[in-house]
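Worked example 3 (structure in, sequence out).
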């Protein structure tokens, strides 16, 4: 089996109005490429190319998906290759990767930086639509007010993931804010402050707060170093297409 053709589709899904008003660029400036990979045996695979327009690459033509080492980092169009090989062998793609841990993957509601009342309005909308978790881009000067208003608007069962993009600054500030937020349904702090110069401050946070920590990492060595340092409860993996969060205890 060999690849005979790759079709590329550049998509740009509009933001909802509450998000669009806070985005620095037009959504059409941030396209995502969808690749449909065809083979000479009629088996096709689909892959997401990530943010930005992916261009055609002649080297894909003639590649044999069944001969690829799919576990090796950097395999071109790896998502489509898993799709093709799984279909060719008659098994779901997860059988090529290991044990399946979930039957369904939950999808969360999301907000860019907003004012507290705007966060609350979005939380109410998300809860009404059936979302159980709301992730927000948090800032230290209004996060406590924000979470309080969100909880009043959407109810105490809404899980809130607080993502400051490291703007809580340091361990002291993060712990201070965590103590004020522990009374609410906070599912995780994602990157409250920088990881460097080491993981010891993340470990210290975990020792002094009940709020789980979810570092945003894309490198397997970083992930394992955080696990060894007991510096994470879960991880946010990959890029901004967000948000795969896994329990750190699952990484053996």
């Amino acid at each position: 089996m060999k690849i005979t053709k790759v079709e590329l589709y550049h998509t740009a899904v509009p933001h909802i109005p509450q998000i669009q008003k806070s985005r620095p660029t037009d959504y059409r400036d941030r396209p995502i490429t969808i690749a449909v990979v065809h083979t000479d045996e009629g088996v096709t695979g689909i892959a997401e190319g990530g943010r930005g327009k992916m261009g055609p690459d002649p080297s894909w033509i003639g590649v044999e998906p069944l001969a690829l080492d799919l576990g090796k980092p950097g395999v071109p169009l790896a998502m489509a290759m898993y799709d093709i090989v799984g279909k060719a062998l008659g098994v779901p793609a997860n059988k090529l990767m290991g044990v399946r841990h979930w039957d369904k993957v939950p999808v969360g509601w999301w907000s860019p930086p907003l004012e507290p009342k705007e966060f609350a309005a979005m939380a109410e909308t998300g809860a009404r639509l059936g979302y159980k978790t709301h992730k927000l881009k948090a800032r230290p000067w209004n996060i406590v007010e924000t979470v309080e208003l969100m909880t009043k608007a959407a109810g105490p069962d809404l899980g809130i993931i607080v993502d400051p993009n490291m703007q809580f600054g340091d361990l002291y500030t993060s712990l201070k804010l965590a103590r004020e937020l522990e009374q609410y349904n906070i599912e995780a702090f994602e990157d409250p402050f920088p990881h460097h110069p080491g993981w010891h401050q993340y470990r210290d946070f975990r020792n002094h707060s009940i709020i789980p920590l979810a570092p945003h990492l894309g490198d397997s060595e970083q992930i394992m170093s955080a696990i060894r340092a007991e510096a994470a409860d879960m991880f946010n993996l990959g890029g901004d297409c967000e948000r795969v969060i896994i329990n750190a205890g699952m990484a053996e």
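Notes: The chain has seven helices and ten strands. The first strand starts at residue 3 and ends at 11.
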